[in-house]
């Protein structure tokens, strides 16, 4: 088992969720910002390639085992978009009065328009490397099925949470508590699988 892991993200929402899920373990979770790790490029077309690049990048700059996730929203009617570009979906929109999350949500609603097929899922892949050149990274995946609403609901969460309606609870992600979200989300499922793999290694 690892005593320290650096988390390769600058996203405070993701960091909070990962720290919450790892909290029962005796692992010191350190955000990469503590080490002033420079931003890693994510040039790939798949989640797994981007996650692996981020994990290796963080491990290289810190000398510690590194955990990275790459996740996003995949909408059926948009052939899987925004996908790996979820966080930068509306990067070309320069309305400084809106946050990046707000611009992304606004673009998603505009692109979907009156589309009746609102089925979508969140996807997450988590990669843990023991060191920069680890030939056997630990990889876990998770999905979360739902649909895209036509208007916002809920005040919590980040990203597309106010628009994503969970199939089972009938609530948007922004209406769920962190405890429930951590248990049923794409990241929660991926983290649970990762923890099972870590337990086998201990």
Sequence-ordered SSE layout with sheet pairings:
Blueprint lengths: L3 E4 L4 H11 L5 E4 L15 H16 L3 E10 L24 H13 L6 E11 L8 E11 L15 E3 L11 H7 L1 H16 L1
Parallel strand pairs: 1-2, 1-3
Antiparallel strand pairs: 3-4, 4-5, 5-6
Short description:
The chain is an alpha/beta fold and 202 residues long. The protein has helices spanning 12-22, 47-62, 100-112, 178-184, 186-201, and strands spanning 4-7, 28-31, 66-75, 119-129, 138-148, 164-166. Strand 4 and strand 5 (138-148) form a beta hairpin.
| Strand element count | 6
Helix content: 25-40%
Order of helices and strands: EHEHEHEEEHH
Biggest sheet strand line-up: 2-1-3-4-5-6
How far is it from the N-terminal to the C-terminal residue, by CA? 5 Å
- CATH topology-level name: Maf protein
| Cα shape | globular
CATH class, please?
Alpha Beta
Task: Please describe what this structure looks like.
The protein is an alpha/beta fold and 202 residues long. It has a single domain, classed as Alpha-Beta Complex (Maf protein), CATH 3.90.950.10. It contains five helices and six strands; from the N terminus they run E-H-E-H-E-H-E-E-E-H-H. A six-stranded mixed β-sheet has the order 2-1-3-4-5-6. A hairpin with an 8-residue loop joins strand 4 and strand 5. Helix 1 crosses helix 5 and helix 4 packs across helix 5. The protein is globular and about 50 Å long. The model has no long low-confidence stretch (mean pLDDT 91).
Give structural attributes.
alpha/beta; 6 strands; Maf protein; 5 helices; single chain; six-stranded mixed beta sheet
